[in-house]
């Protein structure tokens, strides 16, 4: 064997070790999940991730290839999250609820903790049409916009493990509810009108609320939509005075309970 062949042989041995370690790590991730479920422990423990990051920084301090190694570990962490998410949910999670209920916030949190992909329906529709939602309403009318929503929900049926953050009016059309349920569990986020007002008062991106930022207006519109939202929901989560972590933990628990019934 010449020197080059010796190096390649050694590299191959390193890859074998890495491969075995990765397979073992992935199995342990699944075991941890199963243990947490069995013992009714919180699935989400973000402090663990922070601990692992700190450990790596300590171990790599002043060493060569620090950034390269950090990038590999980031990817390993992301993949562990994906493994967890796939084990927990083999469908899409569809978030519905009133403006300001926290659909986008909780979607982003699910993306962080489970590395799930997020579809912001309003954003995708606006991007694809190269128009703002208000302009689509003004130019083509609400029916046209609702058709775009229906088509996007149908498109999402071929995907798995996505978080779909719906526009506030999506569940108002019955067909949309039928389509979202074909490959998704529907999570209704609720909040009291006072909470909603508090959350949206300084924001100007919600045309329906512009000039109407009062508790009576929000309560009235909420009441008009309540029945349809409730009818669409597989699970409901009240979000008042709860952190993102608490809401997501409740979401995981309730969805798992629902899945074990079916
Ligand atoms: N659980 C929470 N606790 C405190 N603040 C929250 C919570 N959830 C969301 N918020 C805040 O409320 C505001 C509105 O939340 P978000 O944009 O996620 O609502 P949304 O349901 O996506 O609204 P829209 O239907 O208009 O898109 C944001 O500023 C967000 O930071
Ligand atoms: O509540 C609604 O009817 C809407 C909410 C927004 O997300 C947009 O989808 C649009 O402005 C309609
Ligand atoms: Mg949103």
TrEMBL record:
Q: How is the cofactor bound?
A: Binds 1 Mg(2+) ion per subunit.
Q: Where in the cell is it found?
A: Cytoplasm
Instruction: Write down the EC number.
Output: 2.7.1.71
Return the broad EC class.
Answer: transferase
Signal peptide range? none
Binding-site residues for ATP, renumbered to this chain:
100-105, 206
| Binding positions for Mg(2+) per the UniProt entry | 104
Query: What cofactor does this one take?
Result: Mg(2+)
Q: Which CDD domains match?
A: SK (cd00464)
Reactions the enzyme catalyzes: shikimate + ATP = 3-phosphoshikimate + ADP + H(+)
UniProt-annotated binding residues for substrate: 122, 146, 168, 225
What is the first-listed, main subcellular location in coarse terms? cytoplasm
PROSITE patterns documented for this protein: CHORISMATE_MUT_2
Q: Which SMART domains match?
A: CM_2
**Which keywords does the record carry?**
Amino-acid biosynthesis, Aromatic amino acid biosynthesis, ATP-binding, Cytoplasm, Kinase, Magnesium, Metal-binding, Nucleotide-binding, Transferase
Domain (Chorismate mutase): give its ranges: 1-88
**Involved pathway(s):** Metabolic intermediate biosynthesis; chorismate biosynthesis; chorismate from D-erythrose 4-phosphate and phosphoenolpyruvate: step 5/7
**InterPro entries per the UniProt record, alphabetical:** Chorismate_II_sf, CM_dom_sf, CM_II_prokaryot, P-loop_NTPase, Shikimate/glucono_kinase, Shikimate_kinase/TSH1
Function comment: Catalyzes the specific phosphorylation of the 3-hydroxyl group of shikimic acid using ATP as a cosubstrate.
Q: Which HAMAP family does UniProt cross-reference here?
A: Shikimate_kinase (MF_00109)
| Xref: PANTHER family | SHIKIMATE KINASE, SHIKIMATE KINASE 1, CHLOROPLASTIC
Similarity comment: family membership: Belongs to the shikimate kinase family.
Its quaternary organisation is: Monomer.
This one is known as: Shikimate kinase
| The encoding gene | aroK
